[in-house]
Design a protein that fits this description.
This protein is of the alpha/beta class. The chain has 16 helices and ten strands. The chain is 52% helix and 11% strand. Helix 3 packs antiparallel against helix 4 (104-138).
């Protein structure tokens, strides 16, 4: 069963469980606690229809439906228990607190009853689904497309160790890539997919879901460069620990039957914040596109009258996980501004029109990118997207730049606010420091702070 179907099944089961749980609670509360006749009225139907939707939304924010295939029994128990506690408390204050009661004990009875009914009716079907997933993984009937980085004896050892385990750990090996083009001993067992220089393309073309880095952990420079090209994306990264890692306590065990591996987890933004961020992106962009329509018309007229050419400017940029997309801007330069090849603009660039100079200072040229946000190419806040031409140049000097392509790029960024437009590769590297700092400290509060600074720049017209 594929991931989308599993997610749909879990959402459907949760919705049905929540509806049955609320209906059962409503009946027992009326008949057993309040000693009244059971009356199927509008409030009952509304409760059975809308309260399950609220439960599913709570589970969504909780991260229950994120990567369903990686759920296990302990995790689903914790998610169900915590989610039920939060949901029952919210339902108590919204629906039960104003009930006419004979005493406070009836409050306690209602809350305990709702918790018991909802938890049991939710956890049991969830447990059956997750147990089936785990069983299929242990029997090696299901798993995650896995690639090994490294082709030496160390890579062979970890491959043999994982394959010889009595229970499957979820690794469905697709192939391997190497670092130097020489170590290809693993080719006797796995398909050679290419060199580390092409890792992003290899990940996409082979639909890789997790990577095991089988190089010596003492090779810190190689390890850092490899991880910088992988981390921050949707691919799970695991590395082999050395004795220092074990003694220092940096090994994170997530499978007591599996091989000893460190899972590299660099996403500092909790799952509920990531989901909230995307919801806010979509809602805010949709509202902006509607409310700013008069502004778009005025800016379109100004652009058209400033110089011959189209109103909008489309350019290919690199988005999340290296996927290219067409960014949309109001045109601020004369047409054919790059007929001699890719060129960054400067403060006194003669190619920029008078209207374009104003729009750049006030960031108004970026407004059409609300459409890019709405369709999922971009976010409101994130590292600014660059062209592959400049990414290649920057990455040669500082490989960590690849980390910025592991998240959705943004209309505005910390680097854009603090530094502005870059005029050359050196300035791009300087701006990159701010964006990396953002990447390592991403929170919703930081996003709102960056948006506030951006609004101030728009009104002041003080952008670089």
């Amino acid at each position: 069963m594929n991931a989308r179907l599993l997610t749909f099944l879990l959402v459907l089961v949760d919705w049905i469980s929540a509806a049955v749980a609320w209906g059962s609670f409503y009946y027992v509360r009326k008949v057993k606690l309040e000693l009244m006749e059971f009356d199927v009225n509008e409030s009952f139907y509304y409760g059975v229809l809308f309260i399950p939707i609220a439960w599913v939304f709570l589970y969504l924010l909780q991260g229950t439906y994120h990567d369903v295939r990686r759920l296990h029994r302990i995790k689903i128990f914790n998610l169900t228990f915590v989610g039920t506690v939060i949901g029952v408390v919210m339902l108590f204050f919204v629906f039960l607190l104003d009930d006419e009661i004979n005493g406070y004990k009836q409050y306690y009875s209602s809350v305990f009853l709702l918790f018991a009914i909802h938890f049991s009716l939710t956890f049991i079907p969830r447990l059956l689904i997750v147990s089936n997933i785990v069983a299929r993984i242990h029997k090696r009937k299901a798993g995650f497309r896995t690639m090994i980085i490294g082709g030496s004896e160390r890579a062979i050892d970890i491959y043999n160790e994982i394959e010889s385990l009595p229970k499957g750990t979820g690794n469905k090996f697709v192939g391997f890539i190497n670092l130097n083009g020489v170590d290809r001993q693993l080719e006797q067992k796995l398909t050679y997919l290419g060199h580390i220089d092409d890792v992003e393309a290899i990940l996409r073309s082979n639909e890789i879901e997790q990577v095991i880095i089988a190089v010596e952990s003492v090779e810190h420079d190689k390890l850092r460069n490899v991880i910088s090209r992988l981390e921050g994306g949707d691919v799970k990264i695991k590395i082999l620990p050395d004795m220092y890692d074990i003694l220092s306590g940096t090994v994170k065990m997530n499978n007591i039957f599996g091989a000893l591996l460190i899972e590299v987890n660099t996403d500092v933004m909790p799952i509920w914040q990531r989901i909230t961020k995307r919801i806010f992106d979509v809602v805010a962009s949709a509202i902006a596109l509607v409310l700013l329509t008069p502004v778009f018309i005025v800016l379109g007229v100004l652009v058209k009258s400033s110089s011959p050419g189209p109103i909008l400017f489309f350019q290919q940029r690199i988005g999340k996980n290296g996927v290219a997309f067409n960014i949309i801007k109001f045109r601020t330069m004369v047409t054919d501004a790059e007929r001699a090849g890719p060129q960054l603009s400067s403060s006194n660039d003669p190619r920029i029109t008078k209207v374009g100079r104003f729009m750049r200072k006030s960031r108004l040229d970026e407004f059409p990118q609300f459409w890019n946000v709405l369709v999922g190419d971009m976010s409101l806040v994130g590292p600014r997207p660059e062209r592959q031409f400049y990414i290649d140049q920057i990455a040669e000097i500082e490989p960590q730049f690849h980390q910025l392509t592991k998240v959705r790029p943004g209309i505005t960024s910390w680097g854009q606010v603090k530094y502005g437009y870059a005029e050359n590769v050196e300035q791009m590297l300087s701006r990159m420091k701010y964006d990396l700092l953002y990447l390592k400290n991403r929170t919703l509060s930081l996003d709102f702070k960056i948006m506030l600074y951006t609004v101030l720049i728009i009104f002041k017209g003080s952008g670089k």
